[in-house]
Amino acid sequence: MVGVALIVLGIVFLFVGLYHFLIKAPRSRAQFERRTAKTDGTISDVIVKEHKTKRKNGVGYHVSHTYKITCTYKVSGMEYTLKNIPAALQPAVGDQLAISYNPDDPQDAHVDQYTADPDTNRKAGLGIMGAAVIMCILGFFLK
């Protein structure tokens, strides 16, 4: 039974890996390549969410935070806004950020420091497919 479950899980992982490698990676690479112009943006809002998880020993809670920022930037006198950008550390309202945008469509933009390298999806897809192959092989041996 464990072998069959590993095979099924391996097949699911294979499709997830293929999605990242064949669909998501080229899409993020295309977005990254067309956003060639640079400007400065300003953080206009920070949303802080608090998350509590019960400690393993059952006493008290562990508190963590997630942050979403709103950033405004100007191109040719027009102001644009990027919303719900996840941030790892809490930034402050008014902080300056580097923005990359598409010169043909200034709304098509990203915050440089919060945007992953487009090759990350390709590498993640390869890693997930590798795990899928290992699961399928283990599943066949345990079956």
**What percent of residues adopt helix (DSSP H or I)?**
25-40%
Question: Segments where pLDDT lies below 50 for 5+ residues?
Answer: none
Q: Assembly type of the shown chains?
A: single chain
Distance between the termini: 7 Å
Instruction: For the largest sheet, list the strands in their spatial order.
Output: 3-2-1-4-5
Query: What pattern of helices and strands is seen along the backbone?
Result: HEEEEEH
Shape: flat
Quickly describe the structure:
The chain is an alpha+beta fold and 143 residues long. It is 40% helix and 40% strand.
Report on the architecture of this protein.
With 143 residues, the protein is α+β, with helices and mostly antiparallel strands. 40% of the residues lie in helices and 40% in strands. The protein has two helices and five strands. It has helices at 2-34, 119-142, and strands spanning 37-54, 61-75, 78-87, 96-102, 105-111. Strands 3-2-1-4-5 form a five-stranded antiparallel sheet, with no helix packed on it. Strand 2 (61-75) and strand 3 form a beta hairpin. Helix 1 runs antiparallel to helix 2 (119-142). The longest helix has 33 residues, at 2-34.
